[in-house]
Each structure stands twice: as structure tokens, then as C-alpha cells.
Amino acid sequence: MSNTEPMIRVMGFKTSYEKLPVIGDPVNESCDHKGYKLDKSGRRILELQAEDWVTYSPSHSPLNTKTTERVRLMLPDPTKMGEDQEGEKLKFMTARWMQIQPAYEAFKKGQDIPINGMALAAWSGVTVEQAEVLRQSGIRTVEEVRDLTDGQLEKVRLPSMREMRKQAKLFLENTDVAKAAEREAEKDAIIEQMAERMAAMEALLEERTQPKAKAKDAA
Questions:
Q1: What is the number of H-type helices and E-type strands within the chain?
Q2: Cα distance between residue 137 and residue 157, in whole Å
Q3: How do the pLDDT tens digits run along the chain, 219 residues long?
Q4: Between 20 and 30 A from 130 (CA), which of 15, 18, 78, 92?
Q5: N-terminal to C-terminal alpha carbon distance within the chain
Q6: How many CA atoms lie within 13 A of 145 on its CB side?
Q7: How far is Cα 126 from Cα 156, in angstroms, rounded to an integer?
Q8: pLDDT score for 115
Q9: C-alpha–C-alpha distance, residues 202 and 44, integer Å
Q10: How far are the Cα atoms of 38, 145, 158, 175 from residue 137, in angstroms, in the given order?
Q11: What is the C-alpha to C-alpha distance for residues 100 and 73, in angstroms, rounded to an integer?
Q12: Global pTM?
């Protein structure tokens, strides 16, 4: 795995409408060398088209660096890599797109961007207003609050961020303990059910074999 692979966090998407060149059919239409339709004077035909944009940041520093780019330019295209030594650029673009694609597909379907971790809405440690400020800073999960560095805390426009980070850590630790206890309880319940089934099977087997044993003794 190349160390040039990006680790990014998708912040959001938006759609703008711009006049862009129209892709044509070079066989049946007048097109330039890139395949764009030309009018009678040889100029590219422009039409108002939807243009999707993605905003993302490095996962380790969502508050410091945000980049916004056209989604169509993020797609890895082996034919446009040129002199790409050992495919490093293609690997980079492919790894980056793999992190963007699920969020983009959700955006196109009108769904929320999928997140890894516990959503802020599931945590009683923040109000609705505080959660919105955190989301505007690129923080969407309780885990991301817990993992904020001291430098990043200062960039969030909320008071008592150090205490919030501490509470996020305690909340997740308690949640993990609760989940572990729940798993143990489920395991115990399964073992108990299996024991009951084994006892029922043994009782049934004994019931079916007893008449044969009595008949044999009588003979």
C-alpha cells in the first residue's frame, strides 16, 4: 500500500449551474479534438449544466485545511495519467475516490453522508446548537470530539471544549463497557438456550429407547 494514499474526511457537497462545453458525437457531429460539440463557426457549444462539488479535508486535521473541487475531476482515469511512474498518481486518486464515492452516492440520493462512529445526535453531552457548531467545524461524531488535539480545540467556537472532549471520552468508554456487558448477556442466553435444547433432546432420546429396553427384558 502506497504511503501517498490520502486519508480524508468528506465535509459535504454542493451543486452549482454553469455554462459548460457539451460532449458530442464525433461520428455524426462537428466536434473538437476533445470531443466537445462545435457550432457552425467552430466554437464550442456551451449549455447550462449541473456541476457537483465536494469539500474534504485531511482526516487528521479537519479544522485546518479544507479543499473544494469538482467531483468529475476527482474520478481516477488511467487514460489521463500520462507519465505516471509506477502508477502512483492513479493509486492516489483511486484511494481518494474510494473515500469520496460512498458519500457522493448518498448525496445524490438525498441521504445523509455516512459516518464512521457515533453520531453527535446520539450523545446527550451536546445540545442541538452545539452539535451544529461542531458539524460546521467538520466534526460529526463523538469519536472525533474525543480525538481533538489541543490545537484543534481552540479552533472550535464553543466554550469548555476541553471538558467536552473529556466527557466524550468518558461517554464512549461507558458505551463500550455497556456493549461488552450486552454481548456477554447475549452469549449467556445462547448458552442457556443450547443447554435447554440438549436436555430436551436427551429426554426425547431416553423416552424413545425405554420401550425397547423393557421389551427386551420381558423376552
A1: 5, 3
A2: 9
A3: 444 445 788 888 999 998 989 999 999 999 999 899 999 999 999 999 999 999 988 876 656 678 899 999 999 877 766 665 567 888 888 888 998 999 899 999 988 777 778 888 889 889 999 999 998 887 888 988 998 888 888 888 899 999 999 999 999 888 866 566 666 667 767 877 887 788 888 788 877 777 655 555 555
A4: 15
A5: 77
A6: 29
A7: 14
A8: 76
A9: 83
A10: 44, 11, 11, 25
A11: 12
A12: 0.56
Grid cell in block for residue 51: 456541476
Which amino acid is present at 172?
Answer: L
Cell representation of residue 187: 452469549
Number of neighbours of residue 13 by Cβ within 10 angstroms: 19
Distance CA 129, CA 135 (A): 10
Quick one: pLDDT at residue 4? Answer: 45
Strand partners, 44: 38
d(CA 141, CA 160): 18
Cell numbers at residue 183, please? 454481548
Q: Which amino acid is at 2?
A: S
Other beta carbons within 10 Å of 30? 14
Rounded to an integer, what distance in angstroms lies between the CA atom of residue 76 and that of residue 212?
A: 74
Neighbours of 164 (CB within 10 A): 22
